[in-house]
Amino acid sequence: MEGLIMDYPLTTNTILEYGNNVYHHKKIITHLPDGTRHEYRFGDMYKRCKKLANALTRKLGITKGDMVGTFAWNHGPHVELYYGVSGMGAVCHTINIRLSSHQIEYIINNSEDKVIFVDATLVPLLEKIAPLLETVEYYILINAAEDFTTTLPNTLHYEDLLADQSEDFEWPTLNENDACGLCYTSGTTGFPKGVLYSHRSTFLHATTIISPNAGNFSNRDTVLLIVPQFHVMAWGFPYLCLLSGSNMVLPSSNLQPEAIIKILKEEKVNKANGVPTIWLGVYDAMKMNPPKEKLALEEYIVGGSALPKSLIEGFEKDFGIRGVHAWGMTETSPLGTVSRIQSKHERLSENEKLDIRAKQGTAFPGVELRIVTDDGTLAPTDGKTMGELQVKGAWTVSSYFKTNNHESFTEDGWFKTGDVSTIDEDGYMEIKDRAKDLIKSGGEWISSVALESALMAHPKIKEAAVIAISDEKWVEKPLASIVLVHNEDKILDEELIEFLSRDFVKYQIPKDYVYIKEVPKTSVGKFDKKEIRRLFSEGKLN
Ligand code: AMP
C-alpha cells in the first residue's frame, strides 16, 4: 500500500523559492579579483535567476535537457547560473578551470555544451581551444569591462544578456529525477568521466548537510565558500545556504591565505569550507601574523584530502577554531561522511577525541558504506581490517555520463571508490591508502600513469614510476623515480620539467626526481608502487 502523501518534486527550484520566501533579506557577498566588493540579497538574486531563465529560453534558444557550461570562479552570477539554468530545465555543467586544455576541450565536446558562461579573467584559457569546440554557440562574458576584446566568437556580456529580460518566469514542472548539474571527475587515468546530478540528489544532499550532526548550518551563520563552484557544485553549499538562511560569502579568485584572512575578518565569517592546503596556508599565515582580534570563525569543514590531526590541534589550541573533517567524491555529490564527536565520547581524553576527529567519519543518513577485502569478503567493522571502500546512497552516482564504466560498480549495486579504508564498531571510516594510482596535490588530481607514459617517451628514459609523497603545503606531491637507458646518461631536473610542460599544467609536474637502477615489479610485472613507497619511506630509493 502506498502512503497518501503528495508527490512533491524535490527540485532546485523549490530551494530557490524557499530561499526567496523565507530568507530574501540574507546576503550574497562577492570579493572580486580587482579588490571590489559586491553585495546583494537572496531576493535580488532570485529576480536575476528569473531574468536569466528568460534569456536562456528566449535569446539563447536553450531548452530542457540542454547543457549550459560555466567556466568561472565563485561569485553571485555563478550562483545565479546554478539556479537559473537548472530552474528552466537545462543542466548546469561546471567546468574545472584547472584541467589541461586537452581535458577541457574533451569535456566540453563530450557534454555538448551549447553555451559557456566564462569569467573575463579566464577567457584566454578558452580562446586557445575555441576552434576545437564543436557544439558551443555562444560565449557569455562575466565581469568583463565594456571594451573587453576577445577572439572568442559569438560573445555577449552577462549584464547585457539580462538587462532587458522580465523578472517573471514560470518554472516548468520538472521531474525530481531530471538532471540539474554535471561535473566531470578529473581523477581518472583516461579521460575525465561525467557525473550527472539530479534535482532530487542535490536537494537531499543539501538538506542533509545542514543538520547539526553534519555541517551544522543555520540562519545565524555567515559562510565562506572557498571550495570552487567548479568542484562538485562547491560541495552543495550554494544550495544549503539558501535552505538554512546562511549569508553566503564568495571569494572569486582571492584564495591566497592573506586574502582569505582579510575576507574572514571583514565579513565576520563564522563557517567555511576548503581543502587542507587552503587551511594549512591560513593557519601558517595566522601563526606568522596573529590577528589582533579573535576571528568570528568557529568552524572550517575540510575534505578532498585528509585533514592532518596536527592542523586540527594547532588551529584549536592557538586560535580556538574547530576543524571538521569530511570525506567525499565527485561521484558522491560529494559529501559522504563527516567526523564529529558524539556525547558518548565526552569521557575520552582530548587526544583520543582528536584521533576520532582526524578520521574521515560516519556516513550521513542517506549514505551507506562497506569495506570489501582483497578476497572479496566483507570486512568486519573492527577499525583494523582494510579493504576497498564501497558506497551507495541517495546522492551516489549510478553510472557515468555517456560511459559504460561497469568496473566502477559491483553487481549488487555499490560504487567502488578506489579508497582503501577501515570502519570501526561505531561506524567511523578511516582512509588508509588509495587503490587508484593517483596523486592529490592541493585538492587537484595528478595521474601518475599519465606522467609515467610521458616520461617514458623521453629518449634517455627507460622506465619511470611516479608515486605520491607527503608534502606540508600540498598534502601530497608527485615523486618520479627514473631508470635511464644508459647509466652514464644525465638529465637535469629542469630539462624534465620543461619536457613535461608540453602536456601537463604546472601543478601536475613533479619537482622531485630520483634515479634508480630498476623499478621494483609485482609478480605479474607491474610497477610495484607499494614497494617503491616503502623504499622511499625508508630512505632507500636511490
Ligand atoms: P574528487 O572526486 O576529486 O572529489 O576526489 C575524491 C577522492 O579524494 C576520494 O576518493 C579520496 O581519495 C580523496 N578524498 C576526499 N576526501 C578525503 C579525505 N577527507 N581524506 C582523504 N582523502 C580524501
TrEMBL record:
Record-linked CDD domains: ttLC_FACS_AlkK_like
Chain coiled-coil ranges: none
Family annotation (Gene3D superfamilies): 3.30.300.30, N-terminal domain of ligase-like
GO biological process: fatty acid metabolic process
Boundaries of every AMP-dependent synthetase/ligase domain copy: 35-401
The UniProt record lists the keyword Cell cycle: no
AMP-binding enzyme C-terminal domain residues: 451-526
Sample GO molecular function, one term: ligase activity
Transmembrane segments: none
Record keywords: Fatty acid metabolism, Ligase, Lipid metabolism
Family recorded in the similarity comment: Belongs to the ATP-dependent AMP-binding enzyme family.
Protein name: Fatty-acid--CoA ligase
Phylogenetic lineage: Bacteria, Pseudomonadati, Bacteroidota, Flavobacteriia, Flavobacteriales
